[in-house]
Amino acid sequence: MKDHSGSDLARKNAAVKACELVEDGMAVGLGTGSTTAYAIRELGRRVDEGLDIVGVPTSYASEALAIECNIPLSTLAECPELDIDIDGADQVDSSLNVIKGGGAAHTKEKIVSCSSKMFAVVIDGNKLKDVLNRGVPIEVLPYARRLVEKKIAGLGGKCTVRTGSGKDGPTISDNGNFIMDCDFGVINKPAALAEALAQIPGLVEHGIFTNADFVYVGYEDRVERLERKK
């Protein structure tokens, strides 16, 4: 039997289910990525039906999609505390630690998630693992690249500058910085690694998130809601 846990339908199911948390009057963080795009479209559909919300996007891409979907937009300067943030992930472990940054937007995504009363992550079933074991994206000031590489090596990791698909040169974030991907193998202690990465000068932000309240895991025939243990 073919596994469809990574299908478009699975991603859509997770995103639509998470949108049920959104109510009238809320300020909503709008994440970035293919799964979150389904959430933005669902919120746009509900806005057309009368839902009264404002969205705070985490990237130019999510901003453009929200505008296309007629979602009124705001900023963290106007709405410093959001009611909920809905975003995708590259991988989630059994303790609901998250790796993000495949779309190079993790700096703004982390700021928005930490500005929200509730952080809901939406993924398909293929992204749920027992432990984190994929590369950790980081955003780095170009001036600090060599220093960051040295510090990462001291933590047992190896990092490479991400290059854009079909173009020469490094991938540049919306903030004008390099995106690098760091391989640490299996990450048994995500919170400790997150703290160590946060201490590196010139490393703007890393892609380990330890603040998810809920994770909605989508499959073609159902959605599982996981809640962080307090």
Automatic annotation (TrEMBL):
GO cellular component terms, A-Z: cytosol
Concerning CDD domains, the annotation shows: RPI_A
Give the keywords, sorted: Isomerase
Q: Which residues are recorded as binding substrate?
A: T32, G33, S34, T35, D87, G88, A89, D90, K100, G101, G102, G103, K127
Source superkingdom: Archaea
Q: Which major enzyme category is it? A: isomerase
Q: What does this protein do?
A: Catalyzes the reversible conversion of ribose-5-phosphate to ribulose 5-phosphate.
Please give the name of this protein: Ribose-5-phosphate isomerase A
Q: Which organism is it from?
A: Methanocella paludicola (strain DSM 17711 / JCM 13418 / NBRC 101707 / SANAE)
